TrEMBL record:
Gene Ontology terms for molecular function: DNA binding; phosphorelay response regulator activity
Protein name: Two component transcriptional regulator, LytTR family
Keywords: Phosphoprotein
InterPro entries: 2C-system_Tx_regulators, CheY-like_superfamily, LytTR_DNA-bd_dom, Sig_transdc_resp-reg_receiver
Residue span(s) of domain HTH LytTR-type: 146-249
Domain Response regulatory: 4-117
Length: 252
């Protein structure tokens, strides 16, 4: 059985373009309908319960987040679409929800759809949309939580509780203030760009640290940072100057 999909897009040309792509290149999906504004989208979701929604972030009558807030349930997967590197992208990234930048690439569309279909067919409990709305509504990005998928489920971890990250081949270990260690099947590079805007620093090829959790900076023995959990993290020679500048700013 095919997965029912809804396209929410207020621009006619963009709506028709995505509709044609879905019909021609996404055989797993059945396009159940389209909506051009927030009200139409909410009515369709509450009436027909589509399994997958392509959701435009910015519409003339509101935003994709308005749709999520007004819908009676979140029993669906979402792929956001936007023409901008939007301010909301940070919240979307932390929640591990997919998005597509316009003009939409066929390759990226097929990849996002494949991931959504896998999630739907897995029938696992999924609270990522709730986390997304929580992140989006917060006044400070410092309060963001990040979605970490493990073999046992999904953990939603506030950024402020993460002390450091360690690379282990294709995996990354998150060290949390409560003593937990969470291993995820993504490499450290995938978190670097997202977290560096929120006080994290790639101090070494194998380590990324929360600068607010640096307890001591030792310049001898090649240089290392002592973290709040007493871990000693080596400073790469290439990163010393940048680390020194960042720590100096923190002390001002």
């Amino acid at each position: 059985m095919k997965i029912s999909a809804l396209i929410v897009e207020d621009e006619l040309l963009s709506r028709d373009f995505l509709s044609n792509l879905v019909r021609e290149f996404c055989p797993q999906l059945e396009l159940a309908g389209t909506a051009s504004n927030v009200e139409e989208a909410v009515k369709f979701i509450n009436t027909h319960s589509p399994q997958l929604i392509f959701l435009d972030i910015e519409m003339q009558t509101g935003t994709g987040f308005d749709v999520l807030q007004k819908a009676n349930h979140h029993n669906f997967q979402v792929i956001f679409t936007t023409a901008f590197d939007h301010y909301a992208i940070q919240a979307i990234k932390f929640s591990a929800v997919d998005y597509l930048l316009k003009p939409i690439s066929l390759e990226e569309l097929e990849l996002a759809v494949a991931k959504a279909v896998k999630q739907i067919e897995g029938k696992k409990e999924d609270n990522r949309l709730d986390l997304l709305l929580k992140n989006f509504q917060k006044p400070s990005a410092d309060d963001f939580s990040i979605s970490l998928s493990t073999s046992e489920g999904v953990d939603f971890i506030p950024l402020s509780t993460i002390i450091r990250l360690e690379a282990k081949g294709p995996y990354t270990i998150f060290y949390i203030r409560d003593g937990r260690q969470i291993m995820v099947s993504k490499n450290l590079k995938e978190y670097e760009l997202t977290l560096q805007e929120h006080g994290f620093f790639r101090i070494h090829n194998s380590y990324m640290i929360n600068l607010r959790d640096v307890k001591r900076w030792v310049k001898t023995d090649g240089g290392y940072a002592v973290m709040s959990d007493d871990a000693m993290v080596a400073i790469s020679p290439k990163k010393k100057d940048e680390f020194m500048t960042l720590m100096t700013k923190r002390m001002v």
